[in-house]
Amino acid sequence: MNTTPSVASAPAIEVRSLSKRFGTAQPALREVSLSVQPGEMVALLGASGSGKSTLLRHLNGLHRADAGSVSEVKLLGRRLQSGGRLSAETRALRREVASIFQQFNLVDRLPVMSNVLVGALHRLPLWRSLLRAFPAHELQGAYEALQHVGIDACAWQRASTLSGGQQQRAAISRALVQGAKIILADEPIASLDPASSRRVMELLAQVNRERGVTVMVSLHQIDYAFAYCPRTVALRHGQVVYDGPTAALSEERLHQLYGTQAGELLTPARDPAPAVASASRGPVPPLVAVPQAA
Ligand SMILES: Nc1ncnc2c1ncn2[C@@H]1O[C@H](COP(=O)(O)OP(=O)(O)O)[C@@H](O)[C@H]1O
Ligand SMILES: [Mg+2]
């Protein structure tokens, strides 16, 4: 069990000077710095190829920054990686972070329940985790998580039989079972129809609001950011070009920031999203003036 206390009042996510280059290509991330307070719900916006997935994969320890760089990532006040090296705390920190992917990442042939219970594995003694011998209270917890997202009726179906939206809801219930303090969702609605997209975003917002889970969700269109995320961090060519209230991102501003790429972010809403990010929780971070990418 992890006994290291989270540092009270530390940012949930703190990224400093994060740079990443794959091979000899243009850098995928250039000196990205940002700080997310516990309980925030932040959209990570950017056209395809802007570095959203790469950034999120540095936050869950799947990618390491360029070796020898001054890059640093801290979660909950504890170092996850620095200078391209994972810290000794990485394993413990991964339990605090749940990742949700565009392509669902469930084990297709296993029942939904088994997929959700994966979230509880880290709490089991080794013999139980090897035998997948879950105590009754964990089964109960998983069932309740499935009820919470409205797919308890599918608990014993194979994951592959669920619709995309249902699979994404299963991934959210796995995050609930895990007890994650941070959810990183990488374009979780990119493959979904409008109604399912709304449901998934509503669930993420609800988990954020009711359980105080910090949520960072990448999106390549701005409509759902307006509806659900009080703050947006926008990436272009691996650089942060905007970090501030989503409401201040006018169409004109997006054109300034993205030029001809703006169209991709402004693609007409597939669905008029309902809520507005006015349900801002906590102080809206100040608009940070970031120089435009060259
Ligand atoms: N594993 C990888 N190997 C090589 N290049 C990569 C890899 N992952 C991402 N890239 C490159 O990094 C850039 C950012 O990609 P990505 O983070 O996937 O963007 P986004 O998620 O915003 O679409 C792109 O140019 C992409 O081709
Ligand atoms: Mg991506």
How many E-type strands? 11
Total helices: the number is: 10
From N to C, what is the helix and strand string? EEEHEEEHEHHHHEHEHEEHH
- Rounded to an integer, what's the Rg over CA atoms? 19 Å
Distance between the termini: 47 Å
* Silhouette: globular
Question: What amount of the residues lies in strands?
Answer: 15-25%
Multimeric state: single chain
On the 0 to 100 scale, the average pLDDT is: 88
Ligand roster: adenosine-5'-diphosphate, magnesium ion
Strand order, biggest sheet? 7-8-9-3-10-11
Helix content: 25-40%
Biggest sheet overview: 6 strands, mixed
Low-confidence stretches: 275-294
Structural class: alpha/beta
Secondary structure layout:
Elements: E1 13-20, E2 29-36, E3 41-45, H1 52-59, E4 72-75, E5 78-82, E6 85-86, H2 90-94, E7 97-101, H3 112-117, H4 126-131, H5 136-148, H6 164-178, E8 182-186, H7 194-211, E9 214-219, H8 223-228, E10 231-236, E11 239-245, H9 251-258, H10 262-266
Parallel strand pairs: 3-9, 3-10, 7-8, 8-9
Antiparallel strand pairs: 1-2, 1-4, 4-5, 5-6, 10-11
Helix pairs in contact: 5-6, 6-7
The structure holds adenosine-5'-diphosphate and magnesium ion.
